[in-house]
Fold:
Amino acid sequence: MKSIDLFSIATSGVNASSKLLQTTSNNIANINTEGYVRERTTFANNALGGVGQSTTERVINVFAQNQLRRDITQVGELQAFSDKTTQLDNLLANEANSIAAGLSDFFASLQTAATDPTNLASRESVLARGESLLQRMGSISDFMSAKEEELNLEFTSELVRTNNLIKNIGELNKAIIVAKGSNPREEPSALLNERDKAINELAELMSIDVRESTNNNGAVMVNLSSGESLVMENGSFNVFELGSDADLDFKQLRLATSFNGDKQNTSINIKESELGGTLGGLFRFRDEVLGTVQRDMGQLALAFADAVNSQNKMGMDLDLQLGGNIFTLPTFQGLNYEGTPDNLPVTGRITEGAGNELTDADYKITVDAVDAAGLPTSVTVEMLNGDGTPKKDASGNNIAYNGLTVGAGFNELPGGIEIEFEAASGYSSGDEFLLQPTKNAASLIGTATDRPEDLAFASPIRVEPNQANLGDATVRSHVVTNTEVGAEASAFNGSGGIHSVAESPSATVGAPAQVLFTSASSFQVLDNASPPNVITNVTGVTDYNNLLAQAQANGSSPAWPAEFSALDDYPGYDFSLQGEPVAGDSFSVSYNTNGTSDNTNAVELAKLQQEALVQLSSNSANGERTLHDAYASLVGKVGEEAATADISLQAADAMRVQSQTWFDSVSGVNLDEEAANLVRYQQSYAAAARILSTAQEVFDTILSAAR
Structure:
């Protein structure tokens, strides 16, 4: 049996207890140090007696650490999304900014003016309420534009922070590998804690996965949860950058490859919807809330302004002229995609009278073919969401229109817009343009007049029965649907009358000016010549609704003139009767000269409040909504998003607190436990020292005995 060396045993015991005291003291000293993980020292047995080699390591539960990181990411995303959405919700909920109140005020002023259509004060109130409504719409649109700029600044700031963290993690990886190689039995705890802290900060910004190196050298690999590498185990790393395509204000996230900080030419587009964390929350707010509300507000504003303009044109103003525009609608410049020369402009505008066809979609225009002069002859139109993804129809298919023919001037496209290729030449097949008709439109609509006289409250026609009529038929209603002058699109000549024979698109008859019944079931349509010409004869009449439309559909001997039918909506007016006429009864149609007290069109303008004017979506089968319903839907969506985000944030924060508690219970410093360890290790140190003094006494006794 080998003898036992008390000196060696005692010395190892003293050193071991001293090491334990150092570890415990270090834990206690760092209890308030952010990111500190408590350490534990363990010892191996020594076959020759005493304490073997010590190993100091951090106490880490990898599962608790990963769960905490996931919860940090979730809270970061929801916090950013909730904060931004709540700001927008508060703006829309403010009564001072309420578009609903502005709409109600405008239509209430119209109803008041309709009671006395010649009252200039009432007319001025209509214009003032309209301008106030535009200001409300514009202020909300401007706020959202400012939010978009603010988001871009935040993207830049957060990406600088992200890239610095990625670089720091890569450098710490290298330092840890060196430290572990120099002393395998001692963990570089300070470096590991610093790296974990940086990784947690990165997890707050985006969703990441962290894996230990298979070489067991202390390095970690950090990837996005979607799979893209950020930090490799050798310390090399990739960095993020912001890019844009056609819309320079719409920032896109890209991952640029980099090795040891040397940036390469390759980059990968990152799906912002899968990013997570604070950055993911900001991108999610932009794509799901801000961009949608911007376009919905623009769509609402354009639908309102176009509807008022269109209806005002159906009337006669206080100067006895056909009505014109009350509001000015903006044009919008096409944005050139990368690869399309910047000197090739495309301009868009809203098709007059088609505001109810307009959707919240952006438009991608691709030139399919050009002529010999380099002007487009055919294009493909794709409808996009605000985030650039394709719009879907009810069947889930992309909404696209292929092979649309285009030419000089403005060309009408599906969805209520028109485009014009302005350059004289130079376009090529494959050129691509982005049109955003609704994004900022709410702040670009203005007033076209400040004259209350320009409000066209009267109908431009009057329909009167002949005083000699013997039947009981009376005029039930008349309608004006087209007052366009200049292209012979309507029967109005723009000079306070309707087409005579000389002005008519037909060379033989003028505009319909009289309906003469030859029996209760037949009538003639006559023009305004003297004597009048017969435009057409209609037989087999069973009702007296829309008599001119019946004449166009069923007139014979002579038939309704082909020149009239070739026009979209001629003559642009019609009327219906109630009761029953007899042979010889007639009803004349004429311009409403001196009809300033008429409020027919003012009533129609007021009815717009209840009409479905706003397209529900890019799929027209889904129908339309009133202006109030559209705004209520917009506000309700933002409010719902804000409320849902707040509830989700509270739940996520509760989970984060639970994960933090779990992690701290394993890796955090417990003062009670460390105090108990301190007493225990102090006693073991004293006991080991006592062994050492005993060994000295024994040695001295042996020496004394040998003398």
The mean pLDDT is 89. Residues 120-182 form the longest helix (63 residues). DSSP finds eleven helices and 28 strands in the chain. The radius of gyration is 41 Å.
